[in-house]
Amino acid sequence: MINLKEKAKKFPKSSGVYFFKDKNEKIIYVGKASILKNRVSQYFQKNTKQSLKTKNLIDNTFDIDVLVCESEIDALIQEAYYIKKYNPKYNVLMRDDKNYFFVGITKEEYPRIFITHQPLKPITNNLKTQYIGPFTDGFAIKETLKLLRKIFPYRHCIKLPKKACLQYHLGRCPAPCLFKSEAIDYKQQSFRAPCLFKSEAIDYKQQSFRTPCIYPEIKTIVRKNIKYIKEILKGEKKSLLKNLEKEMIKYAKKEMFEKAGKVKKQIENIKKIFEHKYTLSEFKNMRRADIDWQKAEKFIQNLLNTKKIISRVEAYDISNISGKYAVGSMVVFTNGIPDKREYRKFKIKFSGDEPNDPKMMKEVLMRRLKRKDWPKSDLIILDGGITQLNAVKSIANKKDLIISLAKRNEEIHIPNISIPKPTKEMPEEIKFFFQQIRDEAHRFAITFHKKLRGEGFLKE
């Protein structure tokens, strides 16, 4: 008989799926792990409290096989695939204890994606719904959908709102609510519809049009996004990447380079999700735990060549639509922890013919630096590139530590250093801190911008 405890010790230290088999080589349980060796070995440790079902599972297991995966996200999806394929006895028995999760996709004109425990009782009203799963880890599938939504935006709301929500402005929803009415006012809205701008002779800022041609375009984008998400969740990532590469080549041959570039970015982002360094469990722990600020502070001091104590870090972002309803946000992290009592909002007074983020950022910082009654910042982080940094440097004190964080290439611009520093070369904890504070500044700015836009006016 196979010594399962010794066999488990030889399993790789990588993410994957494991299969418990009975004496007839039938698969009786499927599980996933961020580290296969550690997870499977836990089943055979002494003094471990185990449920009766788990003890029965171990007693009836005669062999264990593993499947190595690219990442924990890949393991999550492969686990769901094999549970559905084999319907293992002990996965069914343990389902009541674990409350397995399913991803529901409604069959509507603009499909909605949601997570549920009960695939037979959808929370939608009499809508036909397709379910993918079961997934054993609720946190993992939620985080996976968040990542996928950044690449393939989809609708999440149960009822279409009257106005575009925050998710649209964050690029996570195609905003079908904007297309309920045939009359679309291009003075008020911003659309991802390049088909509308084929003719340079039409000024969409000045006119309002009825554009039925936009509906097939939007529907096609939405349906493609849903199709791609389904394929990924079903474990068909490789075939999806092949099809996207063919699509990219097709656009390139037709000299539709903008569309080819967009598809290329989607391919890169999918690969990044499945090859990313964080496992979901590590990311979960980092979200819940405070950053080791002593280590982070030391790294930032070395990065900026300073011995200055860094405790209060302020981050700034700008939000507007073509310069209209422009706002700025200031978020504050003290020793690596958000301090929401210190957050501030700014209605931007600058106005010009075109949106000018560097000028807007300069105005916000000029007003902030005049506030001697506010605590002094130890480090200022600007959302943007070298232009934002140069604009603010011109009005700041030479002793102020100021950097800018460019989202496109994930790199940090530092005064008097010509080459930016890529965050991907930094420790994961530092990279996470910069992303966290930038995203929080963006969220705070977007929320305020949406509020002003809803009011329909901007007070001077």
What can you see in these coordinates?
The protein has 460 residues and is an alpha+beta fold. The chain is 41% helix and 18% strand. The strands form four sheets. Strands 9, 10, 11, 12, 13, 14, 15 and 16 form an eight-stranded mixed sheet that branches. Strands 2-1-3 form a three-stranded antiparallel sheet. Helix 6 runs antiparallel to helix 10 (257-275) and helix 9 (237-253) packs antiparallel against helix 10 (257-275). The longest helix has 28 residues, at 428-455. The radius of gyration is 26 Å and the shape is globular. It starts with a helix and ends in a 5-residue tail after the last helix.
Properties at a glance:
disordered C terminus; 15 helices; single chain; alpha+beta; 16 strands; 460 residues; three-stranded antiparallel beta sheet; eight-stranded mixed beta sheet
Quick summary of this structure?
With 460 residues, the chain is α+β, with helices and mostly antiparallel strands. Helices cover 41% and strands 18% of the residues. The strands form four sheets. Strands 9, 10, 11, 12, 13, 14, 15 and 16 form an eight-stranded mixed β-sheet that branches.
